[in-house]
Specification:
It catalyses: 4-imidazolone-5-propanoate = trans-urocanate + H2O. 43% of the residues lie in helices and 12% in strands. It has 715 residues and is of the alpha/beta class. Helix 3 packs across helix 4 and helix 22 packs antiparallel against helix 23.
Length: 715
Amino acid sequence: MRDWRRWPCGWRSPPCWALYASFFLVSPQCWPLPPSQLHMSSLQALCSGLPLRPLPENRGRQAGVPHAPVRTPGLSLAEKQLALRNALRYFPADVQELLAPEFAQELQLYGHIYMYRFCPDIEMRAYPVEQYPCQTKAAAAIMHMIMNNLDPAVAQFPQELVTYGGNGQVFSNWAQFWLTMFYLSKMTEEQTLVMYSGHPLGLFPSSCSAPRLVITNGMVIPNYSSRMEYEKLFALGVTMYGQMTAGSYCYIGPQGIVHGTVLTVLNAARRYLGIEDLAGKVFVTSGLGGMSGAQAKAAVIVGCIGVIAEVDKAALEKRHKQGWLMEVTDSLDRCIQRLREARKRKEVLSLGYHGNVVALWERLVHELDTTGECLVDLGSDQTSCHNPFNGGYYPVQLSFTEAQSLMASNPAVFKDLVQESLRRQVSAINRLAKEKFFFWDYGNAFLLEAQRAGADVEKKGAGRTEFRYPSYVQHIMGDIFSQGFGPFRWVCTSGDPQDLAVTDELATSVLEEAIANGVKASVKLQYMDNIRWIREAARHQLVVGSQARILYSDQKGRVAIAVAINQAIACRRIKAPVVLSRDHHDVSGTDSPFRETSNIYDGSAFCADMAVQNFVGDACRGATWVALHNGGGVGWGEVINGGFGLVLDGTPEAEQRARLMLSWDVSNGVARRCWSGNQKAYEIICQTMQENSSLVVTLPHEVEDERVLQQALQL
């Protein structure tokens, strides 16, 4: 057995020394079993490499589960041969003849080779970390996170390895999953696993202070980073769209976007309606899939009436069974009737409408024009408009099944119908907006695609990133980012709800103590929103998949919460390591001119230095794994974003890594936002420099007299 004193690098005698010692003695079940005993542990078998002898039975696509839309990459014969060759290189020659025709059939039928034969026959979920066969706790934690991303209760299209967003891949095919699990089971503290767009390149020697895992997804040369090129490259199996937390193994189910939606709707009510109490107010939107499914629960938490349209009956029923939707109907008449009743009684309601959101918007216009009554106060859209022509947006002219058929058989006609539907949707929203109704873009590229479709979304005299309606970052969340607040999260790898309850208690105590010690009014408001969120999250049973929690926190809050959790692990109040992470949609993690950086006005909104520097800086400061992606949120070629995972194991080294890395992870973005001219970011970064003499940031000087510019340019 390995000497526990070598775990982790630079071991020192910490508090609760005896408990540390018992914690890091690796149990026998974490060590590989001989082949004759593999039947005793399905996880052991899962980590033993590709199953080749014998090959698993080819069961094809599983019935009764949602599947990704058929892709239409338009490959030539030579490109199809290349795609097949690329898939077969994962397998030895003696099985290639058998696998080649079924892989070719998948390519023909579905536009991609998923390797359905190798979809594991195991209950896919986040198992307690000690059950994974591994040599390092970091590897076991990563396995826990990967399997959570593919849990059918979490993933949108589990057999196609899509976690959310319609095309947010964890891997490109199942061979990659098997190899990754195998490498993780063998990885030591002196190795790093390198991932190229879903493909495990291999284990490479490194130091124990280096990341255990480095992920890149979709790093295509800029001139070739178009949608058309992407479809071909994905079909060839050489790149992948990892969305944000799908391809970085950090998704925590719809809870993450529930919290973001709660904060967005609360702050929208404050800004647009001038109210704190949303009783009787109506929020209309669309989408009940992987991310958008959160909207129903968020409406209940903030206390309003949420009406959410969804064309996919399976997605709607899934949210209803989970209890996230209170009621469902496929009748527009019934939908309007319930909306009126709930407004009158000031009920809290989440109502799912099984139908197209365009029909719902147009019916609301009809009600306004015939009765003079505007039945909606706030509105947005969470269709997957970053992927509008391949299942992300369904046109109102077709049923769900008709649309799925047409997008595969005649993509050009389908595109025309999508764009016509977008124009109709915007026309209805524009009519309602003449009343006291407020709409915002939720960062899903809705207004961008509507503009490309010729819809009336122009804002006269505006820059390239501005439309008739604001992005939620521009009006609602941008100031929060500039103050260093963003979606911080953690996962209790024990899988024990009691551990999560302890972390909730610790986080609440940290925020309450910060308020008691005195903070700015704007910071106090955010802390109070988060304390309310933690209490509501526990009451509303928001956990789907792994035992995870999210809250919006600033640099001080993140570090303090991390330190408190690490100390609780040290003293065994928490039974197993905790993974810290965040959404890529954060202060520093994403350069996205139509979302995260849409309130950057110095011309650098289309530059990606911040996200790339964040990825590198996190790796240098102690992250357990890091990821850098092309695409995410608003779509392929529109954004560069990155994320991290940091395993807290109760050691002093883990605390030091958390302090360094989390501080950088926030200050990088605040400094960039300060340099762009944001006054709130300027104040926060100056305050942070006062508190840490090692931080020295270049501060901007304003042009105080605009005439200087005007006179200079008259030359």
